[in-house]
Amino acid sequence: MNKPLISHRRIDQLKAIASDCGFTSEDAKRFGKLSRTATWEALLETYDIPPQVVDTVDKVEIQSQSLDTGGTPFVGLRVLGLDICKSSIVGCLLTQRPVQPREAYDSLEFCQLKADAGGIKQLLNLNPDVAVIRPTRSNYQRSWIIQLARAGVEVRLVGKKLPAYRRNNLNLPNKDDKANALALACYFFDYQHLPQQFLVVREAWFAK
Q: What span, in angstroms and rounded, lies between the C-alpha atoms of 84 and 44?
């Protein structure tokens, strides 16, 4: 079977990033002509998604068997999965991937924080090393990402592969904010050594 061709045109790569985040051509039309690179750059920048060129085609396929990412795991990291809504967030803080995520879902303590100064302070008090977020078609996540980065937290963005990852590997409830947060944290531990599995890896300095 022939391997699919990967486009190296910047506009095609920007379109792929936008698609991974759930955006469509209709969303992009608000920023100009669809044939212009600047249109797609403006769309991504509006929602605080850097127009970073990444390989969004040649990625490791998610299978139902156990994942083997290789490499040495990051030991002792505090990894925070964040499900971000308009007025609040739900967080799941892990220091290691649970062997049985479904059982962990029932026993873990999740944090639910309001989208205000108090909520941001509580979030930073959790002292995460890494925050894992799935971008949305809104820019609700913008202020959270900026505050995390300024506090020295690495931020990783996960694209549309998350639902399949959850379904094939975690057996978590659907349409559940806590399950989303747990899935994001688990995703980091399973793919920590595969940067191509993340839309963007944002170092702490980007918001300074």
A: 18
- Token digits for 135? 């971008």
Whether the Cβ atoms of residue 164 and residue 48 lie closer than 8 Å to each other: no
Q: How far apart are CA 125 and CA 76, in angstroms?
A: 17
Render pLDDT for 136-183 as a digit per residue (tens, 0 to 9).
766 667 778 878 888 889 999 888 888 888 888 898 988 899 999 999
Computed over its alpha carbons, how large is the radius of gyration of the chain? 17
Q: What are phi and psi of 71, to 5 degrees?
A: 80, 175
Edge-first strand listing for the sheet containing 130-133: 111-114, 88-94, 79-84, 130-133, 154-157, 200-202
Phi, psi of 154 (to 5 degrees): -75, 135
The encoded tokens of residue 19 equal 């698609």
Asked whether the beta carbons of 105 and 140 are under 8 A apart, the reply is no
Q: Which CATH architecture has domain 79-207?
A: 2-Layer Sandwich (3.30)
Across 28-37, average pLDDT: 86
What residue ranges do the domains of the chain occupy? 1-58, 79-207
The CA distances from residue 193 to 67, 71, 132, 154, 190, in Å, are 12, 7, 14, 14, 8
Residue type for position 93: L
More confident residue, 70 or 105: 105
Instruction: Tell whether pTM > 0.90.
Output: no
Least reliable range by pLDDT among 2-11, 31-40, 84-93, 167-176: 2-11
C-alpha 54/C-alpha 37 separation (Å) is: 15
